[in-house]
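Minutes, project check-in
Item: structure for the 309-residue chain
Input as provided by the requester:
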Amino acid sequence: MLTLDQTDALKNAFPQLGGDDSLLKLLRAHCTHVTPKAGETLCLQGNRSNALPLVISGMVRVFKISESGKEITLYHIVDGESCVLTTASILADTPFPAEAQTDSDTRLVLLPAASVTEWISRFPVWQRFIFQLVAQRMAEVITVVEEVAFQRMDRRIANFLMLQKASDDGAIHITHQAIAAEIGTAREVVTRVLRDLERKGILALKRGRIRIVNPVALQQLSLGFPIRRSSVAHGDAGRRPERCDHSGAGASTRICRAVTSRLGWTGPWTQTRMPFSIVFAPMMSLSAETTTLTVPSILKFPFASTAVT
């Protein structure tokens, strides 16, 4: 059973569940509050899932381990999220198909498996929560599969680094082994790629630390564009955006596809519906008023006159 403070923390982390007083009362009565430390294993592959974790704070990493010991991260669970593989394991009454471990000190509540199944037909709010969880996490897992199957290793590493937060000293504090475990490759491969990016002036490496020297070039690489020599040589300090001459509908179409695929967008893109250029800048946004798409890079190009699907 949860205390009042623990119940309030659960409501703050999961506001979508707090709108149903009956559900909230049952959550308080049935859930158990736990505080695992960083590095603790929550579930092993092959175990039965007896409870669904609802994370209040901290981070849990869900990953697979190959027979050779290589790891690949499937997704992370943070504040206000839960584990779709645990949900699937409970609903299908099958063993947990991965490993789950805390990346930091974590607060979470555990809901018994029987309640997870029963409440789906009883509470529409809980049913929506479970369905949204499945949809969100499946999309993330599919993205991981696509990256592993179709993307070059240097692009995957660049994309991973772009998503990391730098510390106060401006560096990303992470080891080559940790990167390898996140993206599912060998440490030697990560080291080779990082040293190559260091030689190109994009990164600066120290033991356990990576500093991004040229964020523009790293952004280009993460989006799948070739790194231009001018970007590598001069970086982005004090430089104005430059126009890259991609003449013809074919070049624009290819770039449109690359950008929309990177952003997870699908559908037709036509010049009549989207008459403005895609403008590349450090921040990513989409303005409904000007129909201008902004993504990380420094290139400009016109939309193709034919639809891009």
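Outcome recorded: Residues 153-234 form a domain with the Arc Repressor Mutant, subunit A fold (CATH 1.10.10.10).
No further action items on this chain.
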